[in-house]
Amino acid sequence: MRGTFFRLTLLAAGLAALLACQPGTDNAQPSSFDRRALLAHAADQYLIPTFARFKTSAQAQQAAVAALVAQPTDSALRAARAAFRLAFLDAQRTLCADFGPGRIGNDEYLSAHLLSFPANEAQIDLAIANGAPLNPNSPQYDRRGFAALDYLLFADSTGTLQRFVANGNLRTYTRQVADEIAARATTAAQAWPAYRATFTASDGIGAGSPMGEYYNAFVWGYEWSKNYKVALPAGRGMIASDPSPLLAEARHSGMGRAALLACLALYKQIYTGDFGDQSGPGWDDYLQTVPGGKELVAATLAQYAVVERAAAALPPGQDISQVVASPAFQQLSVEMQRHTRLFKADMSSLLGISITFYTGDGD
After folding, report:
1. Position 359 in a domain
2. Which pLDDT does position 23 carry in this prediction?
3. What is the per-residue pLDDT for 359?
4. What is the three-state SS of the chain?
5. What's the burial of 18, exposed, middle or buried (CB within 10 Å: 0-12/13-18/19+)?
6. Assigned domain for 357 exists
7. CATH code at 278?
8. Considering the domain boundaries, does residue 360 fall inside one?
9. Bond preceding residue 193 cis, omega within 30 of 0
10. Are 341 and 11 in contact, with CB atoms under 8 Å apart?
11. Per DSSP, what are the bridge partners of residue 278?
């Protein structure tokens, strides 16, 4: 089952490459809504700041890991772990930005390279034993990114420092993982300010348009959390038939719950256009201007509240890997599944924007 899930994770990440590559429509219902204003607000308050912050924390993580590698000490390990936690949470906000600078080449995406999980720990150990260099361009996402760092920095709570002291190959591999994360974060952050003009230049909604890409990336991000952060470890996914802590994100560092909550907050921000104290046009505002949109917004926000209550009801003080079999986590999976239809079928239909990816989960 474990090997099958690794293949599924890679396939699912690769399916994001279908974004904006399928035939689409430009059949929005008549509306006076300023779609370019929505894109400009998203660029200025979400996309550009997100990648700028991620670059900063990824570079800080890179520096902390480099210090640990150069001189493995208890304080250096604590600093590297703290830097990981910050960069990992910042990376979550890129899940709805797998387009433009979030695209790597023609058919690969930042989330696949950096946020695929769980790590293939056996293959990581083998690569370290053989002294094999990390290949940042390979499709073996489960040996890289934050899942790899979660394993390398946190898997052995009592023996990690000793392993870093004793194993030069481990130090090299860990540094290479952190270097790749920082390099990709930096590349995307540097590209976004210039890409803003392209992103806001058109208000069309066909496949490949900025609106189409932004909408699909938003829905894909929600699907990622619903399917992989929640349904699979809950045993409600396409592969796992029973709850499994081994399929929980960031299970070694215990950051899976924080990552999920960060993503749930992000999805609501994107939907409403309320990024902190910077409020502006969001998808709900667009929907309010088309027939049936007000009712859909009300239903969507009501279900958001249900999902938020389900997340808040998770057993306190425990990470995802510890609660996968709990009734509260199972109910969260159910409520997120119910929420998906409102984003995909209903919202897509009212706005005339095609869903251009496939997750195979029947939504």
Report:
1. no
2. 34
3. 57
4. CHHHHHHHHHHHHHHHHHCCCCCCCCCCCCCCCCHHHHHHHHHHHHHHHHHHHHHHHHHHHHHHHHHHHHCCCHHHHHHHHHHHHHHHHHHHCCCCCCCHHHEECCCEEHHHHHHCCCCCHHHHHHHHHHCCCCCCCCCCHHHCHHHHHHHHHHCCCCCHHHHHHHCHHHHHHHHHHHHHHHHHHHHHHHHHHHHHHHHCCCCCCCCCCHHHHHHHHHHHHHHHHHHHHHHHHHCCCCCCCCCCHHHCCCCCCCCHHHHHHHHHHHHHHHHHCEECCEECCCHHHHHCCCCCHHHHHHHHHHHHHHHHHHHHCCCCCCCHHHHCCCHHHHHHHHHHHHHHHHHHHHHHHHHCCCCCCCCCCCC
5. middle
6. no
7. 1.20.1420.20
8. no
9. no
10. no
11. 275
- Is 154:78 a contact under the CB 8 Å cutoff? no
Tokens of 188: 């995307």
Which residue's entry shows tokens 């361009």? 137
Q: What is the pLDDT of residue 7?
A: 33
Each residue's pLDDT tens digit, 146-160: 999 999 999 987 899
Query: Residue 99's pLDDT band (boundaries 50, 70, 90)?
Result: very high
293-312 and 256-272 helices, crossing angle to 10°: 160
Which residue type does 204 have?
G
- Dihedral angle, C-alpha 95, 119, 54, 218, nearest 10 °: 0
Q: ∠ CA 52-57-60 to the nearest 5 degrees?
A: 130
- Overall number of domains in the chain: 1
Q: Which residues fall within 8 angstroms of residue 323, CB to CB, at 6 or more apart?
A: 314, 315, 329
Neighbouring-strand partners of residue 274: 279
What mean pLDDT do residues 60-85 have? 98
Provide the sign of the torsion angle of the four alpha carbons 75, 81, 86, 87, taken in this order.
positive
Is 242 a domain residue?
yes
Query: For tokens 């409102």, what's the residue?
Result: 342
Neighbours of 250 (CB within 10 A): 29
Q: Which residues form the domain of 125?
A: 2-351
